[in-house]
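FORM 12-B: Structure-to-Sequence Request
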C-alpha cells in the first residue's frame, strides 16, 4: 500500500510538472526523425540500424548481439544541503545531449555542438532532476562561447551538480559513434584543461574522461587505464573529480578497477545488455556487473523506450511481449539498484538518457505518450 501511495504521489506531481516543463523544453529544440533511443542503445521502434549496438554484457570479445517501490529519497526539487551545496543521497540526473542529428549519434558529429536549450528550460528540469550530464567534444571544449553556455546551464540547477563527458568525434568511414578511442592524448588533455578552467571551483561538477571506450581491446585493460590517466595528467585534472568509464560500452567496470584505477567509475545500462528480457535477468546482469563497486560507480547513462502501455512500468512483464526488453530494463535496473543499496553497495547516482524533447522513444518529456515510462525513471531514482 505504501509503494502505491508513492507511485500515486509521483504520478500526480509529474502530471502537474508536465504542464509547465514539456512546453518549456519543447519550445526551441531541433526535431529528430531517424534513430533515437539512448545514446548507445539502438531502438527498433525508431528504425535505427543496430550496427553500433553494444555487446550483451559478458561478451568479452566486443562482438555485437541483439538483445534487446521503497521510500528512499526525494527526486522532486533535489534533496541537498543548501549551505554546503552537497547532495545528500544518490544523484538523480538527466542527460542533455546536443540538439543536433539524433540522440543516438548527434554527439559524435564533428564541430562545436549546437545547444538549443535555454537557461529557463534547463532550470525547469531541476524540478524533476537535481543533476545533469552534458556531453562535450574537443571542438566544443576549445570554444569559449560554448563553455560559457554550458556553465550557464550548470548554474541553473540549485546544487550546480553535473557530469561533463568527453565524446569521440566520428571521422571518415568510422561508425556513427566513432572508433571508441581517444584520438590524441595531448589534444584531449588540453581540451579537458579548458573545461577545468571553467569548472574548477564547482565541487559538484565531475569529469567523465572518455565516453564508452569500445575501441580499446578488453585484453589490455591496463593500456586503456594508462591512457585515461595520461589524459587526466595532461589536463591537470584533480583525481577526485574524474570518472573513468568501464571498458566496452561502459559496461565492464570490473576490468577497469582490476587494472589499477581506484577512482570513480562510469557505467551504462540499456536493453541490449541482455538477450533474456525478463526482469530477473536484467537485475542479475546489473548486479553482477557492478558488484562491490557501487560506492564508486556513477550510472551515467541508462534508458529504454518509455512509450509502452504499462503504468509506471510497475506491472510484472514475463519477458515475452513486445516492449519486454524496455520495460524490464528499467524494472531490472530498479531492482538491482535497490539490492545494491540494501547491501551497502549503492551507486553514487543515475542519469537517464535523455532530456531533449524531440519526441523519440527515450524522450523523458514526451507528454502523455511517455508518462508511464518516465514515471518509472522517477521511481527508480527515488529508490536508489
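FORM 12-B RESPONSE
SEQUENCE OUT:
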Amino acid at each position: 500500500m505504501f509503494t502505491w501511495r508513492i507511485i500515486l504521489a509521483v504520478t500526480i506531481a509529474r502530471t502537474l510538472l508536465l504542464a509547465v516543463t514539456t512546453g518549456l523544453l519543447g519550445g526551441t529544440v531541433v526535431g529528430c526523425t531517424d534513430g533515437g533511443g539512448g545514446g548507445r542503445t539502438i531502438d527498433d521502434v525508431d528504425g535505427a540500424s543496430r550496427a553500433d549496438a553494444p555487446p550483451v554484457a559478458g561478451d568479452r570479445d566486443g562482438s555485437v548481439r541483439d538483445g534487446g517501490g521503497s521510500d528512499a529519497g526525494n527526486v522532486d526539487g533535489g534533496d541537498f544541503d543548501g549551505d554546503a551545496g552537497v547532495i545528500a543521497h544518490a544523484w538523480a540526473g538527466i542527460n542533455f545531449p546536443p540538439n543536433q542529428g539524433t540522440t543516438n549519434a548527434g554527439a559524435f558529429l564533428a564541430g562545436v555542438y549546437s545547444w538549443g536549450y535555454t537557461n529557463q528550460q534547463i532550470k525547469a528540469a531541476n524540478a524533476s532532476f537535481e543533476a545533469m550530464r552534458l556531453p562535450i567534444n574537443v571542438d566544443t571544449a576549445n570554444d569559449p562561447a560554448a563553455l560559457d553556455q554550458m556553465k550557464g546551464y550548470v548554474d541553473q540547477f540549485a546544487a550546480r551538480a553535473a557530469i561533463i563527458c568527453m565524446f569521440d568525434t566520428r571521422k571518415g568511414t568510422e561508425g556513427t559513434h566513432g572508433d571508441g578511442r581517444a584520438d590524441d592524448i595531448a589534444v584531449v588533455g588540453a581540451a579537458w584543461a579548458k573545461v577545468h578552467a571553467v569548472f574548477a571551483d564547482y565541487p559538484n561538477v565531475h569529469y567523465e574522461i572518455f565516453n564508452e571506450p569500445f575501441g580499446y581491446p578488453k585484453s589490455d585493460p591496463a593500456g586503456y587505464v594508462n591512457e585515461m590517466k595520461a589524459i587526466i595528467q595532461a589536463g591537470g585534472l584533480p583525481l577526485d573529480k574524474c570518472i573513468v568509464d568501464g571498458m566496452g560500452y561502459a559496461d565492464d567496470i570490473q576490468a577497469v578497477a582490476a587494472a589499477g584505477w581506484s577512482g570513480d567509475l562510469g557505467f551504462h545500462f540499456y536493453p541490449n545488455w541482455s538477450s533474456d528480457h525478463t526482469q530477473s535477468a536484467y537485475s542479475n546482469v546489473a548486479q553482477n556487473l557492478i558488484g562491490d563497486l557501487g560506492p564508486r560507480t556513477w550510472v551515467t547513462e541508462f534508458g529504454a523506450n518509455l512509450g509502452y502501455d504499462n503504468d509506471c512500468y510497475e506491472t510484472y512483464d514475463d519477458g515475452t511481449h513486445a516492449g519486454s526488453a524496455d520495460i524490464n530494463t528499467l524494472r531490472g535496473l530498479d531492482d538491482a539498484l535497490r539490492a545494491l543499496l540494501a547491501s551497502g553497495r549503492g551507486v553514487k547516482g543515475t542519469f537517464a538518457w535523455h532530456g531533449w524533447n524531440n519526441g523519440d522513444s527515450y524522450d523523458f518529456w514526451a507528454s502523455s505518450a511517455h508518462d508511464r515510462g518516465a514515471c518509472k525513471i522517477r521511481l527508480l531514482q527515488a529508490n536508489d
